[in-house]
């Protein structure tokens, strides 16, 4: 395929994305963000009747919280730890010398007690757990944050830092399974209002290493994760833009979340990959939102 | 002062902020974000007539770009480098062992080629430079991103990860000085529409180490940085919520930005500390935006 006509090269040529010199790390222009904001508002409207508690988090979380989440067991290759300089004038002088000589100056950096968030919902659980036992209706949270995954890629849909929006349900098995079944329907209805083609499939996370293969098989066989996939990239399979996840008691056990009846709380979430959805819109409806179908513009509040 | 009545404790008690276990790293609720969004829109309106180019960036930037910016010379103590796990199954097993024993598992993390952004405008300059010489009118950019500064603090206004909005002017000395003088007026007029008390003062950045003191003195004596300060925290001086910065040819020299007449481009910026502005609003107008003065609500698009 001619490099000048790839979806990726057209995004840069149109000024929708700005390169930063690192694969999977890109800036966005005003049009891209306008679509993003329209999608955020539409997702808010789609969930508003359920009166979720709104939580928004910065792109990083406490290292202690991150460690306890168990993320390093399953996805160590994706995580991004944050390190800082804690030295004095002399150490600073040495660091600048290393940098000037093109040597590795990062090795003297020390842990800053924070880790980039791997998923928006990871920050929710300890906060909900700390409030004590859930009420009889359990809890529902609307959360958003930047998330990090270290997987440099030329695919525009595979960003290292991206925004994830989620509805997170915490409660009994019946409550969270009903939530997930409901959002698998609502998610598809939502994507219908965006006039995008899609398919929904059983999926599995990219667990690390040899043991990871068993984890992935188990997740798939138990139908714990479904994805809504939309064709976006050139010559590649469709891209997961929404996911519908059932965590069983994993986070309930980890954080000590308890239902009103004393049982361990279960959790499920419906997650939206925000930049992926924007890219899907650009791919299928073109680069100028003014030319998009009236129904789509209405969904995004553009008219 | 009674701990239960500090501004900070009241923010948590009211649910406006969520603790994450790390000082200076907090979640925000829907009310906080509604004020944030209103302020963003108002800042957009205040600059719209000048038709700036809109750029939005993720919270991190290329390590190469960061190194070239010279940030580590002046503010090494604030920077946050991002590190990742690049090992195999065996290394993973060792890492988990260290974590389980409470040992330092971060030392085997390797550089991920990205660094958290120290300021929103740092991502702008290399992109503008790469386009070649500026036109006769120079350039104007509206940029926003999360920024990181490693300075754990209990002051609600001193967050480690926060959002910075900036108007950035690039051009001749006359163009950028006119821009800064203009925005020092417009910034004050903007804060007037928010009904907030303020003062504008010459300021200096917290440069690192012994040499840093000279840098700070020089910056202050040359009037390179002014800050708009608003009283927010208990028993502390007022907080810088806007800053008006003149960089002379620092970024022009660093990135090779050139004016139409062949001279090195100068730069200036007007920066808004977004979370600080939200906190100032909550401090002065109360925790329920429904009760805020009609003019303030109008500025934020709340009615």
Describe the structure.
2 copies of one chain form a homodimer. Chain A is of the alpha+beta class. Helix content of chain A is 37%, strand content 26%. Chain A contains 11 helices and 12 strands. Chain A has helices at residues 7-13, 30-47, 63-69, 71-74, 89-100, 124-130, 173-193, 209-221, 250-255, 274-285, 294-299; strands at residues 17-22, 25-29, 53-56, 60-62, 81-84, 110-116, 139-148, 161-171, 199-202, 225-230, 239-248, 266-273. In chain A, the strands form 3 sheets. A 7-stranded mixed sheet of chain A has the order 3-7-8-12-11-10-9. A 3-stranded antiparallel sheet of chain A has the order 4-6-5. In chain A, a hairpin with a 2-residue loop joins strand 1 and strand 2 (25-29). The longest helix of chain A has 21 residues, at 173-193. Chain A is globular. Chains A and B meet through strand 1, strand 2, helix 2, strand 3 and strand 4 of A and strand 1, strand 2, helix 2, strand 3 and strand 4 of B.
Write the layout of secondary structure elements.
Two copies of one chain form a homodimer.
Chain A: H1 7-13, E1 17-22, E2 25-29, H2 30-47, E3 53-56, E4 60-62, H3 63-69, H4 71-74, E5 81-84, H5 89-100, E6 110-116, H6 124-130, E7 139-148, E8 161-171, H7 173-193, E9 199-202, H8 209-221, E10 225-230, E11 239-248, H9 250-255, E12 266-273, H10 274-285, H11 294-299
Parallel strand pairs in A: 3-7
Antiparallel strand pairs in A: 1-2, 4-6, 5-6, 7-8, 8-12, 9-10, 10-11, 11-12
């Amino acid at each position: 395929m001619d490099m000048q006509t790839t979806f990726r090269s057209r995004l840069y040529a149109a000024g929708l994305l700005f390169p930063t010199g690192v694969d999977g790390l890109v800036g966005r222009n005003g049009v891209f963000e306008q679509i993003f904001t329209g999608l955020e508002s539409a997702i808010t409207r789609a969930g508003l009747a359920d009166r979720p508690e709104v939580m928004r988090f910065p792109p990083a979380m406490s290292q202690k919280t991150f460690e306890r989440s168990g993320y390093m067991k399953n996805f160590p290759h994706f995580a991004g730890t944050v390190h800082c300089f804690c030295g004095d004038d002399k150490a600073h002088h040495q660091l600048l010398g290393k940098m000037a000589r093109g040597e590795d100056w990062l090795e003297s950096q020390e842990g800053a007690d924070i880790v980039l968030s791997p998923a928006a919902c990871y920050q929710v659980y300890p906060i909900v757990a700390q409030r004590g036992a859930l009420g009889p209706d359990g809890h529902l949270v609307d959360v958003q944050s930047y998330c990090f995954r270290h997987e440099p890629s030329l695919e525009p849909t595979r960003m290292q830092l991206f925004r994830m929006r989620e509805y997170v349900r915490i409660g009994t098995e019946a409550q969270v399974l009903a939530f997930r079944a409901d959002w698998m329907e609502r998610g598809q209805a939502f994507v219908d209002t965006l006039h995008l083609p899609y398919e929904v499939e059983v999926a599995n996370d990219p667990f690390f290493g040899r043991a990871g293969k068993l984890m992935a098989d188990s997740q798939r066989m138990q139908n714990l994760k479904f994805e809504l996939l939309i064709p976006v990239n050139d010559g590649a399979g469709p891209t997961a833009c929404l996911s519908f996840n059932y965590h069983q008691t994993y986070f309930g056990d980890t954080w000590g979340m308890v239902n009103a009846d004393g049982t361990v709380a279960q959790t499920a979430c419906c997650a939206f990959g925000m930049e992926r959805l924007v890219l899907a819109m650009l791919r299928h409806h073109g680069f100028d939102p003014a030319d998009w179908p009236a129904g789509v513009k209405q969904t995004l509040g553009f008219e």
